[in-house]
Every structure is written in C-alpha cells, then in structure tokens.
Amino acid sequence: MKRLFTILILLPALTACRDNDRKYDASGRFEATELIISSEANGKVMELWAEEGVKVDSGSVLGYIDTIQLSLQKRRLLVGNQAVRARRADVSKQIAVLKQQVTNLEVERERAQKLVKADAGNRKTLEDIEAQIHTLQRQIEAQRSALESGNLSADKEGAAIEIQVAQTEDLIRKSIIVAPISGTISVKYVNRGEFRGVGQPLLKMADMDNLILRAYVSAKDLSGIKVGDEVALYTGFDEETIKEYKGVISWISQEAEFTPKNIQSRDQRSNLVYAVKISVKNDGYIKMGMYGDVKFKKSNQ
What we know:
Elements: H1 2-21, E1 26-38, E2 43-48, E3 55-56, E4 61-65, H2 68-86, H3 91-94, H4 96-117, H5 123-174, E5 176-178, E6 183-188, E7 195-196, E8 201-217, H6 219-222, E9 230-235, E10 243-258, E11 272-281, E12 291-296
Helix pairs in contact: 2-5, 4-5
C-alpha cells in the first residue's frame, strides 16, 4: 500500500517532466522546393521514362517529344544550303581566260611599240591592240563585280539558312525532356502517346534532400532568434517514431499575420505571429506536409 502511494505521488511529477520535455517553441509543416517541367515543344510524347517517387539527377533525360518533322526540316535546310553554296563562283577561275587574253595582247602591244618606234610598224595596229586591252580590262572588272555580287548574295542566303538550321536544332533540343534540378518526381501529368503543347505541364519535381519547415512564432519569441541560428526540429508519425534534426533559420518574415488555422503557436493567446523558415537536411524520413516542432537554442521561456 505504501509503495502504491509513493507511485501515485511520483506519477504527476513524471508526467509534468514529460510534458515539459515536449514543450516546443513553434510548430509548422515541412515544405519542399517544387518546380513544374513544362513542354517546350508541340507534339506527341514519344517516351517518358520518369515515374512518380523516383529520384533523378540534374541533367537526366526523362523523355522526349516527337521530332520527326523537325529532323526532316533540318535535312531539307541542309540540302538547300549545299545547293546555295554550290552557286558560289571561283572569281579567279572565271576571269582567268580574259586575263590571259590581256597578257597575250600586252605582248603583242610591246612588239608593235618596238616596230612603230623603228618606223617599221603601223600605228593603227598599235592603237587597235590597246583598245582591245582596254575593252578586256573593262570586261574583267564587270565580270568580277557580277561574280562577287552573286557570291555575296549566296553567302547571305546561306547565312539565313544556317540561322533556320540553328532554330530547328534548338526546337529539337527543346523536345528532349531534361531534369533541371536533382530531385524526386512528385507528379506525372502526362503519359507516353499523349499530345502536349508548349507551356503545358509534363512533370512536377521536388527537392526532397533540402526541406523547409515553415513555422510561426509570437513576437515574444521573435526577439530571441535571428537568421542563421541553429535550432532543434522534431517530427514523426507518432510518439514512437519521433526523430530529432538540426535546422538553421533561413528567413524571418518582416510582417505579422494571423495564426493559420492548422498551426498551433506556443502562446495560444497570441493572435498575430511571424512566419519563420527553417532549412533542414532530409535523410529520407521527412515527407512534405508532415508536421514538425521547433526548439530554439535560446528560448524565451
């Protein structure tokens, strides 16, 4: 009887100690950085290897959208560009014949000049040779100008085609579905064989390795914390599964707000609270939406 009486006396004290151990400074829910991968191309989803719950690395190829028409368009452009480049003329070769004629006439002119100087030749013949040389030189310049103009036009047309090729290649690249970050596929909006247009969602990813606990504290507690402070976090599905984590305060709101209905603040009499974000490394146990409790290292208790 005496032993039972002692236990009954100690029980309230033990319960009080246990309640005190569970006294937290703030509570909140865990969030993850999420992003939606949207389609950057129009077409049928040919392959989509990503599955919900699977972790992928940044840069991983998750699937691709039909690129047959784009590939054919690129081939057509490349063939067209080859045809345009083939139109370019070799200016030196094109005017080589005329230049050789000028060279031959210059030899004849030199011979005629010697004959005229020795009064053994006809000056009219010399003048005719010089006129022919002048005519050929004008033809050479005109042909050179025309050929260079044609080459310039071909170069411009070829450059325009190369831009179209680059644009087509960009569309082909955008048809490949790539993970922009390392994370976990949380939602799959489309399946293989379905059509998607530019801007429509394909997948949702979440960075589950680095989570945020969004908690709410009263003005009284706010005065004792600052960005960069380490805190203790507690979370679990029940009393038997509670785990402790180390977190760091990464953000404190500058404006007060009313306590969210699904969050319990330490001081229930405080209607206005401040949102606080606490960064925590996840070992795989914490899930988005789970509740977490916080103990500040320097608490205003």
